[in-house]
Amino acid sequence: MHQWITHSPGETIKFSTHLADYLQPGDVLTLSGDLGAGKTVFAKGLARGLGVREMVNSPTFTIVKEYRSGRMPLYHMDVYRISDEEDIGLEDYFDQGGVTVIEWAENIPSWLPDDLLSFIINRKSESERVITCRASGRRSKHIYEEIVNDERARN
Ligand code: ADP
Ligand code: MG
């Protein structure tokens, strides 16, 4: 488990932009934290780091949005309104050659892969966030080591 502190949305975006450097097709990331914690802000940074040119918005109503203008596809999901009992076919995305990032992934534990890089974002104050990361699985542990050792990701 490792923690980073950010002091503005820009710092959170900077962090996840650098994280994107280490991602490969098939990687799955989860984002947890209360409404307004910064999950979508984090996803915007990932998109930027992957070179996505489209505007990235919260996929709360569509559940999934695909962005294909970057160096690999980004599948951005928000399962706030989904429960673990529903099969909405999300797992079909995991092996489609892109990176998947899932907001509110704690709602659908049964549908998540074993190899997972999990981020929890906690709001400390209006502009301060604590980002906690855990890795499970060989691939995620590798990404974890890379981002923990990346000085650019420290604020
Ligand atoms: P979520 O997707 O978790 O519901 P959003 O990313 O949509 O949250 O919104 C986060 C809000 O918090 C934005 O209005 C953003 O400007 C604000 N914010 C303030 N400080 C930070 C920070 N350090 N990191 C991320 N967002 C922040
Ligand atoms: Mg969101």
Would you summarize the structure shown here?
By secondary structure, the chain is of the alpha/beta class. The protein contains 3 helices and 7 strands, in the order βαβαβββββα. The protein has a 7-stranded mixed β-sheet with strand order 1-7-6-2-5-4-3.
Mean of the pLDDT scores?
A: 96
Supply the CATH architecture: 3-Layer(aba) Sandwich
Total individual domains: 1
* Biggest pleated-sheet summary: 7 strands, mixed
- Strand tally: 7
**In percent, how helical is the residue content?**
10-25%
What does this structure look like?
- The chain is an alpha/beta fold and 155 residues long.
- The chain has one domain: P-loop containing nucleotide triphosphate hydrolases (Rossmann fold, 3-Layer(aba) Sandwich).
- The protein has helices spanning 9-20, 39-50, 138-148, and strands at 2-6, 28-32, 64-67, 74-78, 99-103, 116-123, 129-136.
- It has a seven-stranded mixed sheet.
- Helix 1 packs across helix 2.
- The two termini are 18 Å apart.
- The structure holds adenosine-5'-diphosphate (ADP) and magnesium ion.
- Residues 39-40, 58, 78, 103 line the site of magnesium ion.
- It is found in: Cytoplasm.
- Belongs to the TsaE family.
- This is tRNA threonylcarbamoyladenosine biosynthesis protein TsaE.
Structure keywords:
3 helices, Rossmann fold, binds magnesium ion, alpha/beta, 26% strand, 155 residues, binds adenosine-5'-diphosphate, ATP-binding, cytoplasm
